[in-house]
Specification:
The protein is mainly α. The protein has a single domain (about 40-240), classed as Heme Oxygenase, Chain A. The chain contains 12 helices and no strands. It has helices at about 10-25, 30-35, 40-70, 70-85, 95-105, 110-115, 120-135, 140-150, 165-175, 185-195, 195-205, 210-240. Helix 2 runs parallel beside helix 12, helix 3 (about 40-70) packs antiparallel against helix 5 and helix 7 (about 120-135) crosses helix 8 (about 140-150).
Length: about 240
């Protein structure tokens, strides 16, 4: 009879490290600079417009992860992406790209502004980096690269809330836009608590060796490295626009 090894201690240590790394994103120089930069309407517009390209890239990266994954994980990703691609009739919200466009009206943007926005060279570079990580990695690493951004946007992993919540509150404080009217930020602050659980589900089902946990951790770390770079780029792009009077 095969011996069943107790792997619980390794998983407990793994989850603690994921939590530490997710929180460390917000202590990075790039995150701290972006969140400390005083907002004007123009700066908030630049953030929203470039983030529109990022949201579309997320769908591509999750699709690559799904293509590489085993059947049960394909189903988990399919369920995850339903909200993003189709919205949720029960909560009365559209797909999350359209939700972002609707929220952007609170800072004076229209759908035409998103269609006419030039993709910044620096944003393009980060989006290609995420695509490469997602389609050229072993499936566990590819999956983790996308799950990383759900984890670091979830209040169940990050003390003080993820970036959707923090950015929404920043716009509330500095631009006077009530958080409740920021429909995309409000939606993601809520659903990404659920969405981030996909990481735990996959780890519990498929990670029974240190090598597999290491692949997941590599995907998380590399995706968060790209994310830190992009947050610094967003700070650069916003800082080039006049700040508050």
């Amino acid at each position: 009879m095969a011996t069943v090894l107790d792997f619980s201690a390794e998983k407990k240590a793994f989850y603690a490290e994921v939590r530490r790394l997710a929180n460390a994103q917000f202590d990075s120089p790039q995150y701290r600079r972006m969140l400390a930069l005083p907002l004007s309407q123009g700066r908030a517009q630049k953030y929203a417009l470039q983030k529109g390209y990022w949201q579309l890239n997320r769908r591509d990266c999750w699709a690559f992860a799904q293509a590489l994954s085993p059947m049960d994980v394909k189903a988990l990703i399919w369920e995850h992406e339903l909200d993003e691609l189709s919205g949720n009739p029960e909560r009365g919200v559209e797909n999350h790209y359209d939700l972002q466009v609707r929220q952007a009206a609170t800072v004076g943007l229209t759908r035409a502004d998103f269609e006419n926005e030039k993709l910044a060279d620096e944003t393009l570079t980060c989006l290609y980096a995420w695509l490469h990580l997602s389609r050229s990695s072993p499936w566990l690493k590819s999956f983790a690269a996308s799950a990383a951004l759900e984890v670091s946007n979830s209040s169940s992993w990050v003390d003080g809330g993820g970036i959707s919540y923090r950015w929404g509150k920043k716009q509330e404080r500095e631009l006077g836009i009530p958080f409740e009217k920021q429909v995309n930020a409000k939606e993601h602050a809520e659903v990404d608590v659920v969405h981030s659980n996909i990481l735990t589900q996959v780890v519990e089902r498929h990670c029974d060796t240190r090598e597999k946990l290491a692949l997941v951790l590599a995907g998380l770390n590399e995706s968060w490295a790209i994310d830190r770079t992009w947050k610094g780029i967003l700070a650069d792009l916003m800082e080039a626009i006049p700040g508050p009077a």
